Amino acid sequence: MRKKRYQIYLAAVLVLVFGGLAAVIATGTTPRLGLDLEGGISFTLTARGDVNQDVLEKTVEIIRSRIDSLGVAEPEVTVAGADNILIQLPGIKNEQRARALIGTTAQLTFRQVIEQFAPGTPKKKLPKVTKEAGDAANDQEVVYPSAQDGEQGVLYRLEPAVLTGEVITEAQAVVDPTSQQWSVSLDMDSDGAAEWADFTSRLACLRDDGEQIKSQVAIALDGKVESAAGMQDPATAGAGGGVVCKQGITGGQTSIDAGSEDEAKDLALVLKTGALPITLDQSEVVKVSPTLGRDSLDAGLKAGFIGLALVIVYMLVYYRGLGFVVWLGLIVFAATMYTIMAVLGQSAGLSLTLAGIAGVIVSIGITADSYIVAFERLKDEVHSGKSIRAAVERGMTRAFRTILVADAVTASAAVILFVLAVGSVRGFALTLGLATAIDVLIAYFFTRSAVHLLAGTRTFSTGRFIGIRHALGAGP
Where would I find the H helices in 73-144? Predict the structure, then answer.
């Protein structure tokens, strides 16, 4: 009955492991590679002024949502230290666009135009451009340049903000089929829609009073005026057009003109994901070429295969027939690890880094140690005078307890590293923890079953060269 159970365990392990491996190979599923293996860019953003952890965490969430829209495979965005955010983008194709999107604060405000200064205005008559574009500037008059021409173009003196980007519920890039002009369509929440209607109503009344400049609404983004449109007169707008005094624009909808399709989509993205609550400066940028990453991957795999081969040779020489159990067990371990990394890469976005490969290589030693613990325990049982079958039954049970305790210590260290560390160290901790869990399962379901079944055969039990009895030093 016990033999039947071990046969079922062994067959189930082999079918599950190699069936899973065949499935990921057949579907072309492979582990995702991290920045140091695939190449890409890593940069550190430093917050200006004093910030707390809650603000940093909110900023990380906004940045991560923006990066996800770029389709970057397994980006890593984490808080590093008291005021830094670490961003790693493996395999990024458009580096400049990514850096612009991530760093854009997207402080959107709707303001009334007070005064407009055309290009060519004498410098002594030009006001000083306001550099502040954050929340602190919302309650004060500002002078912002046009986003199209910068400070050499039109300058606008603007009233304090009437509305901010917080009222935006949806932002979408759209194109006019007639003019092929791209713009960003904005939808506001109920409070914003009511305020927008009241605001545009007042501007429409100023238009009727002949105030063409002061009837314009400026939409400012990060200290630049994206558009400054006046209220269109219903008398000249045609049927259903224009803005009526004391009525305004209802429904909470408006739009911002954009240049190209990419500009419109990027602007819609940053408005939809929200404004960054803090201002960030790029303090460090590191680029990794795909060639360097491939060299690192090849070197890591080479080291892993060499280590695996040396362990197998040593086990075959020292433990003879039991070495075949190690040989097949390490193959099962490698197949299981590859399958899990491939599946997690596709389903959870887990990426394999060079540090992760180091964790796998270290775990090969941990798995080999488990076999040594088991076999040395068998040797003690045989030397105490027990038969092979009795020694295997008692020794494998006690050996598994020892393996379980040792792996629990390793797993605890891996969990602590994963929780407290950042960057590549977390990759090492994750793969080490996964490998430790796999080692426990293999020791219980595969190693115990294989050794028990081998001990029940004459060739592997008492054979002269490959017998378990000789391997354990018990003699004939």
Answer: 95-103
